[in-house]
Amino acid sequence: MKYIAACDTDIGISKKINQDSVCVKTAKTSTGMAALVMVCDGMGGLSRGELASAEVVRSFADWFDTEFPFELPDWDWQTAAHNVISRLRRLNAMLVHYGSHNNLQLGTTATGIIAVNSEYMTFHVGDSRIYKISDKLSQITDDHTYVNRAVKMGKMTPEEALVDPRRNALVQCIGVTGEVAPEIRLGTLENDVTYMICSDGFRHVLTEKELFEELSAEKTATKKHMQSKMRELIETVKNREESDNITVALFRAEL
Amino acid sequence: MTTGEILVIAAAAAVFVIINIIMWTMIAKKEKKIRERTTPPHDINETLPDGVMEAAAVAGFKLIENTVIIHTNERIIP
């Protein structure tokens, strides 16, 4: 079994600071392989988005390095899901507290995959996305946006949602709302299936067809190929005048 | 220098010292307040165990890919 993973991020063409953070960690363990791949999009418009996204990524990265190895012998996905939800809620409380006591607004999305051998768990808060790229492209996370909720409740059509001025408004993210309800999914890894995690800045101006064609397993066979494809797409995004920061990570298991 | 002039200089010096004391007291109070506000309380501080090497040794755990990209050195969690 082998894991292949890579990531890339870019400040973009408009912003003065890259508020996104990204983490890709894979490890050989006594029972096989493990990975943590995550993207945090520090909120544009909020004053310290880069601090919020950095704290969340650091927290998970430190967990992977120092606590996760001890948890592996008794690894259980239900417990892992509970622990991830607790961690995200603790981080949310910490950022809300820090923001309110320093008159700052800071928030971030938190979206990632934890994989152990042939199984994985996704965790997600906000409007970053995870796509599964196999013989088709499918989005496996839900956007926690106002318009997406309105569409699901039948109060808005998908077409109206595309042009609604509130289309970027989040119903939850880490560091802003008092409570967060992280979305957790469990699954099994498959051969030739690539998982792509990205900030909204990466996907806004790319079509699903482009994502599917450019990030298929054949075109991202090695880490080097992954890196070159991601950079190519980031340059395309910048040429199309996307104004946000741009971040993407790819992960695939070869079983 | 007359006694009157000496008294004026002494008074000016005293006023200067008093103003300085008041000013630095106010600055110290403000700084203390900022320090208190920027340090999260202990109950939400996260304590992470030290020692990646120790963890690695325990479970035959070996990092292969290790990329963490962040864009600030500032910390909330000390």
TrEMBL record, chain A:
N-terminal signal peptide: none
Family annotation (SMART domains): PP2C_SIG, PP2Cc
Gene3D superfamilies given in the database record: PPM-type phosphatase domain (3.60.40.10)
InterPro entries per record: PPM-type-like_dom_sf, PPM-type_phosphatase-like_dom
Cross-referenced CDD domains: PP2Cc
Pfam families the record matches: PP2C_2
Residue span, PPM-type phosphatase domain: 4-251, 8-253
Taxonomy, superkingdom: Bacteria
Protein name, entry field: Serine/threonine protein phosphatase PrpC
Organism: Ruminococcus flavefaciens
UniProtKB/TrEMBL annotation, chain B:
Entry keywords, A to Z: Membrane, Transmembrane, Transmembrane helix
Membrane-spanning ranges: 6-27
Highest taxon in the source lineage: Bacteria
Identification of the protein by name: Uncharacterized protein
Lineage, top ranks: Bacteria, Bacillati, Bacillota, Clostridia, Eubacteriales
